[in-house]
Amino acid sequence: MKSVFCLLDTAPYGNEKAFGALNAAAVSLTEMSVTFGFYGDGVYLAAADQDSTELGVPNLSDILYSYGELRVIVHEPSLIERGLFGETLIETIELVDEEDFLEEMENSDFVILF
Question: Where do the structural domains in the chain lie, given as residue ranges?
Answer without folding.
Answer: 1-111
